[in-house]
Amino acid sequence: MIDLSRSALILVDIQNDFLPGGALTVPEGDRILNAVNTLAARPFRAVIATQDWHPKNHCSFTAQGGPWPPHCIAGTHGADFPEALTPTPVTHIVRKGVLQDRDSYSGFLDNDRATSTGLDGLLRGLGIEHVVVCGLALDYCVAATALDARHYGYRTDVVPEACRGIAADPGSALEKLKKQGVLLKSVEAC
């Protein structure tokens, strides 16, 4: 069993725009909510939600030459957490993708690999040694967050049943995570 007093649960980008009907829907993204709420109810030292929080003219949007439709624009309903996500256990929110000229898949660093979101400092300040990562999308932001957690020296688990990706088959993303030392755990094992 995990020592939850030295562990944090990181909920990656569980936001309206990534759920069915949102601007950038992750297929079956809503199917993770029960597993996520079950995890969040456990006595982790911290439950941290990352939140895409983009300006209206963000570089990742197609109108600015990026790959994605406009999504998770700061202050909009699409950037909010869904009502079905139990907010009570969330102790901290880390916003990412907040600068117009760079994106941020990872909860730790912008895609320039130099600009910190502050997540590492927060975890260290809380005495966290181990993180459990779940959310949307497995093959982008969840994977980037988990790999950066390993890079920063945290024991890192991903819970596949509490994740969904853009790709229909999660096998490639999960294999990449395992090769980098990320453990795959079930909800019951956390």
Report on the structure:
The chain has 190 residues and is α/β, with parallel strands linked by helices. Helices cover 20% and strands 19% of the residues. The protein contains four helices and six strands. Strands 3-2-1-4-5-6 form a six-stranded parallel beta sheet. Helix 3 (138-151) runs parallel beside helix 4 (171-179). The mean pLDDT is 96. Pathway: Cofactor biosynthesis; nicotinate biosynthesis; nicotinate from nicotinamide: step 1/1. Belongs to the isochorismatase family. This is nicotinamidase. InterPro entries: Isochorismatase-like_dom, Isochorismatase-like_sf, Isochorismatase_Nicotinamidase. Keywords: Hydrolase, Metal-binding, Pyridine nucleotide biosynthesis.
The main β sheet shows up as: 6 strands, parallel
Rg estimate, integer Å: 15 Å
Strand-pairing-aware structural class: alpha/beta
Helix count equals: 4
Q: What is the typical, i.e. mean, pLDDT?
A: 96
Q: What is the strand content? A: 15-25%
| H/E series | EHEEHEHEHE
Counting DSSP E segments of at least 2 residues, the number of strands comes to: 6
Spatial sequence of strands, sheet with the most strands: 3-2-1-4-5-6
Unreliable runs, pLDDT <50, ≥5 residues? Answer: none
Query: What share of the residues lie within helices?
Result: 10-25%
Report the end-to-end length measured between terminal Cα atoms.
7 Å
Outline:
globular
Protein name: nicotinamidase
Organism: Gluconobacter vitians
Family: Belongs to the isochorismatase family.
Pathway: Cofactor biosynthesis; nicotinate biosynthesis; nicotinate from nicotinamide: step 1/1
